Amino acid sequence: MRVAAVVPAAGRGDRFGGSGPKALVPLRGRPLVEYAVAALCAATAVEAIVIAAPADAVDPIADVARRAAGAKLAAVVPGGPDRQASVALALAALPDGPEIVLVHDGARPLVPVPLIAAVAAAAADDGAATAALPVDETVKRGEDGWVRATVDRVGLFRVQTPQAFHRTLLETAHREAERAGFRGTDDAALVERLGRPVRLVPGAPANLKITVPADLVLAETLLRRDEPVSFAPRVGIGFDAHRLVPGRPLRLGGVTIPFARGLEGHSDADVIAHAVMDALLGAAGCGDIGRLFPPGDPAYRGADSMRLLSQVRALLAERGWRAAHIDVVVMAESPRLAPHAEAMRAAMAQALGTDPTRLSIKATTLEGMGAIGREEGIAAQAVASLEPVSERRDGAR
Questions:
Q1: Cα separation values, 288 from 159, 238, 282, Å
Q2: Ranked by mean pLDDT, which of 19-23, 39-43, 296-300 comes out on top?
Q3: Is the peptide bond before 162 cis (omega within 30 degrees of 0)?
Q4: How far apart are the first and last CA of the chain?
Q5: Which of 221, 257, 270, 330 has the fewest CB atoms nearer than 10 Å to its CB?
Q6: The pLDDT of residue 231 is above 70
Q7: Euclidean distance between CA atoms 43 and 356, whole angstroms
Q8: 232 — pLDDT class (breaks 50, 70, 90)
């Protein structure tokens, strides 16, 4: 059955103590929601993803989601006053077609891809399913700071997401809950209220929800634990050159450089970005930019190379890789590019979803030799290395 995913990520994180949306809290340099979206994207059964974001953070969360999900991102919509309302708004924005809807919290970054597939499959068979873990500690009922009773933990479960449902069942559950003014702590509770059974699927201990700052520390520790000790090195090289012509803006490394001429090309002709993309694609064994973005395709006429670089980043993530380090040499007689190097690093790091310290951009001249020395064009050469994406815990490389 066709599967879509809804990601409630509109919480402000009051218990977390942050000043902004919890979805954008960094975890090892990347926004929290990016991990959850990347895992959903990596699940082959999921064909569309809709995210509910805080109304004042739709655009930044959409930028993060596009890097993580690529073409699978269907929409980012403003969320509601609580989780239930946010899920309902995202559910209404899903495209037609998918029959199974997964609901996964944007604050659960370490969800294993196989768990996503297992919950979706259980919902396809039984109508409703949730990831859950049995309670394995003694449970007490308390009041006013005193133990009132010991609760038998047999048959008790700690519920996680993802949860998954036949689409019509979930839509009905939300509609009926809204009509009755019922607020549930999860979507399974809305379905249970209709008298429908919910299948339990064994969850994952590492699939924790980030609620307080200590949870973030634990998540960072788990990510470090899952990083491989060693891996086969992946290195690629890229080169690009374009002719300087009048009447075109000069775009290099995602930055517009003040100059009388620009680079001629089908897209924005950003030789730095193009060399970096070819180096990354080569390291991942994914061909080159000519194959990925054909120069004769009208869709890429005048295209912003930062957008194309983001698509390359998403392609690498699907294969379990991300940029480890990139080194670029730009060959230009003029203009002087050194003053713009930091802005270029920042722009390209944002497109790649990484830290600017992982990029190096150097400029040199050819001392008047050859076509570049005569200021007829600009060229760039890049070397890129890759490292495994730590959230891909399903063994993909």
A1: 44, 9, 7
A2: 39-43
A3: yes
A4: 26
A5: 221
A6: no
A7: 29
A8: low
